[in-house]
# Entry
Amino acid sequence: MFARARGTLRRALRALSACLWLRPGGAPALGTPFSYAAPGQPNELVLLAWGGRPMELLVDDQAVPLALSPSPGRWQHVCVTWAAAGGTWRSFQDGVPRGRGGGLAAGHPLRPRGVLVLGQEQDALGGRFDATQAFVGEISDFHLWGRVLDAAEVAAVAGCSTRPAGDLLAWTEGGLELHGGVTTLPFDPCP
# Structure
């Protein structure tokens, strides 16, 4: 079960922010909320937790552990940012900074013309899924920006004081292709 975003990155990216609301099920591992595979690199951009490891952010198949720990059965806001300049990254949970660092795929631009999938980690462009890496739960309001959001912007989105749409990918009903029995339900994280 997965959802595939319609469209793709049209140009190489040197910075990004990915934010989403998620409610994990009770599975032993969180799985993969999202993965972006590019031609020649299935792990171009991935957020996952599996195999007893902490949640990780992967860029160009390089990984950093994150201090994110979404609780099962509860909606939470998760956001990660990354910039090629210095490979700097940050992670946030419910608008609160949960880690930062550098050296993650420094200087590497994210490749265009890939495939963005919600709920599965790709071992090949658009496929070869491993059921043990599947996200079990619910995802909503996934947005992707081609720049690094600052801490105040992330806090405002998580706190529902602003609702900016991602400039690269904005959560819309028609923006996803649903596969394997994925269903859509009405949900507003900011009622």
Observations:
- The chain has a mean pLDDT of 89.
- The chain has one domain: 2-175.
- The CA atoms of residues 45 and 77 lie 19 Å apart.
- Helices lie at 151-158.
